[in-house]
Amino acid sequence: MNPESKFYKNISFEDRGIMKIGIDILVPKYLTSILIGKNGENIKVIQEKSSASINFSKEDKGRYTLEEGEDGKRCRIVGSLDDTVYAFNLLLEDIVRWENKLNGKRVVGNFRK
Predict the structure, then answer these.
(1) Is residue 96 within 8 Å of residue 110, measured between CB atoms?
(2) Which pLDDT score, from 0 to 100, does residue 20 have?
(3) Domain contains 47
(4) At 12, which CATH number?
(5) Nearest to 50 by CA among 105, 94, 112, 101
(6) How far is CA 70 from the centre of its chain?
(7) How many domains does the chain have?
(8) How much is the pLDDT for 86?
(9) Is 108 contained in some domain?
(10) Whole-angstrom distance, CA of residue 76 vs CA of residue 87
(11) Is 109 part of any domain?
């Protein structure tokens, strides 16, 4: 098994004749409320910019663990290939920015800023 598969996976399907791709990524659980924002405002901005849909799972309580032993939350991004990649990059920028702001330089999944 690829060690990175613990932190993300991709899915693809056809929706009304349009090919969609989705990726599931794990984010530190303590960052989810910051990333989502009050009334979902932060995620809405990313969704509007990218045209991708972004959802954080509610049922993952303690189910996923990141490298440092922290609880992780599954985030699913779905859209066209370009939309999904763009949304992923915007979300990753926010994750890295908040990780650095709150805790200094830290590993986020397998990504290091």
Answers:
(1) no
(2) 86
(3) yes
(4) 3.30.1370.10
(5) 94
(6) 16
(7) 1
(8) 96
(9) no
(10) 10
(11) no
Burial bucket for residue 101 (CB in 10 Å: 0-12, 13-18, 19+)? exposed
Is 29 inside a domain boundary?
yes
Torsion of CA 69, 70, 71, 77, to 10 degrees: -110
* The pair of three-digit structure tokens given for residue 26, joined into one six-digit string: 């794990």
Q: Could you give the CA distance from residue 22 to residue 40 in angstroms, rounded to a whole number?
A: 20
pLDDT in tens, the chain (113 residues): 344 444 555 666 666 677 788 898 888 888 889 999 999 999 999 999 999 999 998 765 556 666 667 778 889 999 999 999 999 999 999 988 888 888 754 444 444 43
Could you tell me the end-to-end alpha-carbon distance of the chain, in angstroms, rounded to an integer?
25
Q: Phi/psi at 11 (nearest 5 deg)?
A: -135, 155
Three-state SS across the chain? CCHHHHCEEEEEEEECCEEEEEEEEEEEHHHHHHHHCHHHHHHHHHHHHHCCEEEECCCCCCCEECCCCCEEEEEEEEECHHHHHHHHHHHHHHHHHHHHHHHCCCCECCECC
